[in-house]
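Exercise: predict the structure of this protein bound to 2-OXO-4-methylpentanoic acid.
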Amino acid sequence: MFGLSLDRLKILTIFAAQLYAMIDQTQAIKITKTSHSRIQEVDWENLPFGKIFSDHMLVMDYKDGAWQTPEIVPFEDLKLHPATSAIHYGQSIFEGMKANKSESGEVMIFRPELNAKRFAESCVRMCMPEIPVEAFLDLVKKIVDFDRDWIPTKDGNSLYIRPFMFATDDYIGIKPSDTYKFIIFTCPVGAYYAQPVRVKIEEYYTRAARGGVGRAKTAGNYGASLYPAKLAQEKGFHQLIWTDASEHKYIEESGTMNIVFEINGKLVSPSEDDDTILRGVTKRSVLDLAKSWGVEVEERKVTVAEIVEGLRNGSVTDAFGAGTAATVAQIAAIGYRDEVFDLPAIESRTLSNKIKDHLNNMKSGKVADEFGWLMKF
Ligand code: COI
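Solution:
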């Protein structure tokens, strides 16, 4: 993993756990409640994505080689030194999760331990201090519980949870920062994509090269994607399908999501063996669920040629993105060079419709959590 030996990673993890335990056992979390809740101002029937923020956030600083006492504070602007190193040199990582409420009011977060592990892996790759999985989960639970009234109840809506960490040394020069800020805020959200997406296979620009940071959820990956995505948007597409950096021969992922195809009744998705693809929590869940229903699933190298051929001869019957924000985002059309291939009508996509509904129902407690994927409290 990221070229680190397993032993070294284990030692780093144990060390991080010890550092965290030192603060956790000696100091309780500090809480400052807002004096003016904004919850009455929310239009719960028309929630946009990512524009409304709950009343509080959790903040934890790293300095002198240790994580400090976490605090829950009113959601507010941050004051930053102009030389804050994350702004200049990009040591910045994040995660995304969703929480829902069951009819009985129980809070459920979907597979947060996978996000916690991926966050820890991003820390290692970006030379940032790790937060042990258990501690990460505990902090997520604390802030979501504190603002649990902000969890939307309308079907299809959720509380999006955004943990992130960035380097805070005020220093001009390239080295890992000695100080960091870890924050978790939450936002009640509606759909990320309001309609099926049109995507274009990208054969020039690159999201990630082997040995780079493609597997880490680091801010720069998203910044670097904006210009190529803008060029595609000018041609009527919403997003790109990224291909491998060296030959542009293999499909990798799509915009802000992993990608899954249905080919001759099988679900096929690019394998995560190379370190160029984000290890998606929604993608993993989609594939696990489909397998449990007896659907054949292949995670392997997927060539652009086979997808284009399959779109021509009709063996590719469905394609969809999978991501926390987007959930299951069905693809309406795929652009390749000067051609645009329309995929079958959304109503006919029996399997992806069933997966989407099942995952949404599981997240809100309407169907059984048969795999134990929900963290409940
Ligand atoms: C997510 O799916 O949670 C993401 O992080 C994608 C996006 C909102 C940047």
